[in-house]
Amino acid sequence: MSERRNVLLIVVDQWRADFVPALGADFLRTPNLDRLCREGVTFRNHVTTAVPCGPARASLLTGLYLMNHRAVQNTVPLDARHFNLAKALRLIGYDPALIGYTTTTPDPRTSGPRDPRFLVLGDIMDGFRSVGAFEPNMDGYFGWIAQNGFELPPKREDIWLPEGVDSVPGATDKPSRIPAEFSDSSFFTERALTFLKGKQEKPWFLHLGYYRPHPPFVAPAPYHAMYKPEDMPRPVRADSPEAEAAQHPLLNFYIRNIRQGSFFHGAEGTGAALDEAQILQMRATYAGLITEIDTCLGRVFDHLEQTGQWDDTLIIFTSDHGEQLGDHHLLGKIGYHDESFRIPLVIKDPDAPERAGIIESAFTESVDVMPTILEWLGGEIPRAADGASLIPLVRGVTPAGWRDALHYEYDFRDVHYSRPETALGLSMDESSLCVIQDDDYKYVHFAALPPLFFDLRDDPHQFRNLADEPAYAGVVKDYAQKALSWRLKHAERTLTHHRATPRGLETRTPQTET
């Protein structure tokens, strides 16, 4: 092992945990991810602490829960006062490179209303150096395609439509008109290899982002036909959308309002209208997009091995959030279901080869990634961070007092349209929920809607709400109190370990607290 310390943080988009072969998805072909799992530690119980993309990435890269960073939805600004991974890396001599995106809307107090960054879904988080941007509006990607001689259609997003059609009426087995060599996954891979080859012997940190398997669910050839729908896992859902929707007002709203057009260009109707055959085709396409990413990762891994960097590099593979894929009659990343929040996490620590191939079952969360990277590089973990380093778990040691449950949040306000608030009779600041979940139970608390409680031992897919069942009243109360205690424990604490004294400023550490 040399003294150089490199970090490759791979962040894919919308890849759910049960589409990882090491965790049971034996229908998938991902030889490069399989290799990473064989040589690293795969985490079985890992969640993002927020959805959708913007909030999820804010938590991943700041180490803060949603209740503290408050970038609660896509397009909602991230307060400039929050520290993040990129800024922390700069303090220890790294120039953190980013390929892809972070979906970060800047603090409006640091700019003005005419700033072009307020015209798009999100921009690059402060502190990163972009070496292969997707944003704003995917201009970098589309420019790369054009520079390589591919003629863009008048509406450039139509490259993801099959040849000769103006819309996709739903799930399709047809390939996108863009060839795989010019896909967005190829674009990010080319940018990664360009960056890595330019670094030569200098230590580096690279956030390598991929857009897939995010919709539109259309894959380039040959990935569009790599999987058969009949080989895909069947959707987990109630007998009808109406039966599913009866569980809770928020679920009812989404079942009635999620549109297929957000997942298949030009499609009509609601996501709940998809029949099983369409869902299985969608999943086959989703699996194809996953294998395309895996092929791209193989190129990056090969370069690291050929240049002698494979054994010098901490590699972390994860996603920003999951995807419902028709489960519970839903599409997207919403609500309170596991499919939206459970995501992959694989860590290959070159300092712990003896742990190769381990499946770790401890409860871990996306806020743990930032502290993990900083500890491995010898940096200081911010006092405000809500997560904790996973390096001990990677090396076979469970820290004392490790969390005994998973926690995640969802803020369902719609700042622009206010559709959930209007439909449910809520104010913007009442439109939120938090979840506490362990191996036995799952409790969902809403700010202004009825709670949910599930006995996961008998109902792992969460169809029966027991919140009002007298037999569970005591357990529901216990989990509600646990959720409250969790929020109190993780209230914002950037400066709470300092105090003024007659001798001047005194700084306390967790080891000296009582």
TrEMBL record:
The answer on whether this UniProt entry bears the keyword Metal-binding reads: yes
- InterPro entries referenced in this protein's UniProt entry, alphabetically: Alkaline_phosphatase_core_sf, HdlasePehA, Sulfatase_N
CDD domains given for it? PMH
- MF term (GO), any: metal ion binding
Q: Which UniProt keywords apply?
A: Hydrolase, Metal-binding
Q: Which Gene3D superfamilies match?
A: 6.10.250.3360, Alkaline Phosphatase, subunit A (3.40.720.10)
- Annotated protein name in UniProt: Alkaline phosphatase family protein
Taxonomic lineage is: Bacteria, Pseudomonadati, Pseudomonadota, Alphaproteobacteria, Acetobacterales
